[in-house]
Design goal:
Rossmann fold; single chain; Elongator complex protein 4; 10 helices; three-stranded antiparallel beta sheet; 18% strand; cytoplasm; tRNA processing; nucleus; Elongator_complex_protein_4; alpha/beta
Amino acid sequence: MSFRKRNAVISSSSSSSQSTPSKTENVPIPGVRPSLVDGRPTTSTGTASLDSLLAGHAGLPMGTSLLIGEHGTTDFAGVLLRYYAAEGMVQGHQIHVLGLHESWRHELPGLSTDDKKSSSKSEATSDDKMKIAWRYESLASGTAPRDRNAGQRRSNSTSESASNFCHSFDLTKRLSPTNVKGQIGFHPSMNIPGVPPRAKDTASPFQVFIKVVAYKLANSPASWIHRVIVPSLLSPTGYAGSSSRPEEVLQFLHALRALLRQYPAKLTAMITLPLSLYPRTTGLTRWMELLSDGVFELIPLQSSAVHAPPPSSKSDSKSDEQTQGLVKIHSLPIFHEKGGGSSEGYAAHGDLSFSLSRSKGLVIKPFYLPPVGEDEEEKKKNGDSSKGSMEF
């Protein structure tokens, strides 16, 4: 008679072999996390304030696109594209850029040193808390102390996953090759002056770009994330006159939308459009907005702050936080009854503004007018101080 404990599960080699593949399948993908609303995979745009506006998902849902229109001759939308590309390069994603050359790679912002310091401080404080909790854990339970390293590993993994979703970048620095984990490919839409065009360059740049992206999506592993970047769509400086025909542009956006729906867990896209050349009142722009999942509009304010040079490393924090334009949200990706989107927070109850700073990048925040008479009081104080300094 064998002495065997009742109700004991007998482990076998077959069960252990079946459990190992399930662990490998649940490996998290860098730069992707589930949505806070419905659990769908999301990725960061590289701008934390923009992520917070995307229908409550705290990121750009996979398989969706953003169309950002901008008035005037400024390039604030281009800054968002640089952050979007830099975030993908740091996370190890595949970047596909249409309409630009290799030189754009050297314009990507570098990682901020403040982000590294804050992450190191948070890790140190979490380690101290885990040490204190581990010491008193055995006293509360009255049993032998547990493994302290296991708790530290769990806490470090959760903190790293939260902090590595959206990085902080510095506009005064350039992305270092040591921080680059992804790959970027450029597909110019126009021929270089002085270079004779090749046979394949005579085809539509939109069709060639769609074929290349579709081929790479079909032949890449499921864990590879792809980002499509289309800066200044239909701008005369980047696209030929034949590319601005409505049938060419709309077919391109329709094909890109089909790829986003075909690969809902591998592809996102961000497009910018100069609204001064293609206003929202035209039929072509309205169709482009209908073929995009999210539509934002940037309205720069015509003031001295707009035409000022880019912020330097010695610039004042107050000057960096000056309002430089307004933001309008026309549509959001995955807007349904679960995702609050514009009905949450201040997105629907007030106007939005943006400011560009060196360390924080482009920050979208509520727009408030200063109290009446506050500017006059500041001018009087400044005038009195200047007069007092001149007296002897």
